[in-house]
Amino acid sequence: MIKGVEIMTNNKANIIKEIGEFLDSDEKGMLITGTHQYKKHIAAMYVINEKLKNKRILFRTNAMNMVQTHLKSMVKKQPKAGERVRIDNNVYEFDAFTSSGTWQKTSGDVSVIIVYPIDAIARGAVKLDCIDDLFDFKRFDKIILVSWTDNPVNDYSLFDKYVDRKCVYDAEEEDPAYHARVIESIDRK
């Protein structure tokens, strides 16, 4: 894939294929946007689970108290920063991109990093140092940056220097009414 070229994947089958190809490639970074607010990061975790076994995965989120919200039934109790939690075939560690004090509590060596939701970073409310820190102080094979809602105020070009592949996962095919509500919500802003 040519760096910075967006692939319009849109549906579940295509996003799973794209994530799998990304994990099998020499590419370092992937950006996933689209209207499927709560399933983009889950799709990434699903494919990671299918392809990787007994690896350490860093999940950097907006706030530690949001881990259970973002991962629903996968995480039984709210983890502390750096705490290891087995989710299916891999071990996850968590920290918060809004709290630099949590960053050094996670391992320096991980296989994959998921950053979700990146919206606050994309609209400039959080500085890019929370992403730069990963490249400066963590050793990893892959990083997957995932949006929540593709609001027009979000500037996803900020992530161009980190990603080789951009994909879209919309809810339109699976849940047209939900997709329409998300689009309507974005249009009202």
Describe the protein's architecture and organization:
With 189 residues, the chain is α/β, with parallel strands linked by helices. It has a single domain, classed as Rossmann fold (3-Layer(aba) Sandwich). The chain is 30% helix and 22% strand. The protein contains six helices and eight strands. It has helices at 12-24, 40-51, 67-71, 119-122, 129-137, 176-188, and strands at 6-10, 29-33, 56-61, 85-87, 90-96, 112-116, 142-146, 165-169. An eight-stranded mixed sheet has the order 1-8-2-7-6-3-5-4, covered by helices on one side. A hairpin with a 2-residue loop joins strand 4 and strand 5 (90-96). Helix 1 crosses helix 2 (40-51). The chain is globular. The model is unreliable at 1-5 (pLDDT under 50).
